[in-house]
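User: I'm putting together notes for a lab meeting next week and I want to include a structural view of one of the chains we've been expressing. I don't have a solved structure, so I'd like a prediction I can at least talk through. The sequence is below, exactly as it appears in our construct file.
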Amino acid sequence: MKIKNMAKVCAAASFLLLGACSSAGTGGTANGGGSKTMFLGMVNPPVNFSTINSPDVASSFIEKFMFDSFLEMDGPQNFVPKLAKSFETTDNQTFTIKLDPDAKWSDGKPVTAEDAAYTFNMVANPKVETTVGSYLSMLDGLDDNGKLKDGQTEIPSVKVVDDKTLQFKTKAPVDPNMIKEQLGTKFLILPAHVLSKVKPEDLANDSFFLKPDVTNGPFTFVEYKKNQDVQLKANPDYYGGKPKLDNLYVKIMPAPNLAAQLQTGELDMNVGIGIGKIPPQDYERVEKLDNVRTKSEKTIGFQTMMFNTEKVKDAKVRQALVYALDRQKIVDKLLKGYGEVVDGPYTSVSPYLDKDLKGFSYDPEKAKQMLKDAGWDFDKTLQLVVPIGNKVREQSADIISENLKAAGVKVKTTTYDFPTIMQKGKAGDFDLLLMGFTFTLDPEISSLYSSSGAYNYMKYSNPKVDELLLKGKSEPDPDKRKEIYSELQKIWDEDMPIITLYSDDDFDAISKKVKKGEPRVFGFHKDIVDWSVAGAK
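Assistant: Thanks for the context. Below is the predicted structure for the 537-residue chain, given as structure tokens.
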């Protein structure tokens, strides 16, 4: 099948860091006055630069400047070649990837199928810590978490055909769009000649993932000044052509600073996509700036409130708490209307959203009655845990707290930085937890709802859901998949382990000095070799 038509966290939790902003200079020129330099602004600092073990969207975002995916999705289920010249299947089960013959690593070594096979095998190795195992879980020979059995080191269904050709086989025929999005656009391979000597159990802590000095993308790593900026420079030997920019800085700052630095010209654009959103209270101000243009897009990202199902055990109580929430108020008041209320993990952008589901309206009286009927202890205090930094989310916590108190529920809100939030989530140290996600357009979402899901901090377990998630993952027919995920959405509404609060639109601002390049929900990194700014020599 030719390449034609096809929420790490990934977690998109933004948080405030009050460290100094980058001192790299203003947009257009830096470090020498005449270099062609672009400055992007975001709120989240990256955790690491491990293409196979980054828990956050910020890290994955920066990695895609340095490492190429096989494909790029530049529109809903529309795939174009990148590192792969072709990504084909004739039976929806055996897939063949042909790498670009000119692709090479930044140290001059060719990018080979051996590199791809090495990365596949490392992700599948039981000793290797990884966040992308779900992308491989449909491969023949791996378990539902994308892992080999103990003692095995190579995936039996992955075959190196020649230096530039890799073949793999799934357990059963699958929807090729799922494979192309997950493995094609999200999976970034590693240089085997650099890392193969590292023991699998030591890989996660290897220094390469803090300073990746051998990469295959259009930009190479220069320096990460913690909580300030990531500096990248053009890869002159990039197989896709030398980038028009010499330098690229991704600056990290508190969200309110985005508007200020767009105004002064210190930023050329914000990155949007959940990790660099301009606060809605600044939208009007930014729209009036003479030196920028703005745009907005619906997204697949969404903000949630997780229930710890081991502490809030009754599904009827969880439903009641949802009826107590005025989510539309969050959209209207905090997002200035730039967003939508959705029930479940699929936004209006998704073709898998079941629009026939009734959903949950704001009904505080019904919430009170349901709580009484469920025998809720109104003397009990719920612990609401909130990440700091994303101002809308922080303010939404105030509305949520007010709503729940209006329904007679006692709430105590505590805030933490994102690393602490991740620790508390994994430990189940919360009753209610706010967290944002950006997964894939494809509906496969086992990492959130599966009993063994990496982001299932809710401790949610439903055998029927696990069964349907596996069925949905392995069903090749898109229409039948839609039926499976509609059934899942009904169950999730009944069980209510997590509620989507809202999906906020991307509101982006781009300096008028930028001749080419802009934030995009789909295909952000597609044409970065052509990005350019005016006024630089």
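A couple of points you could mention at the meeting. The first strand starts at residue 37 and ends at 42. Confidence is low (pLDDT under 50) at residues 1-33.

User: Perfect, that's what I needed.
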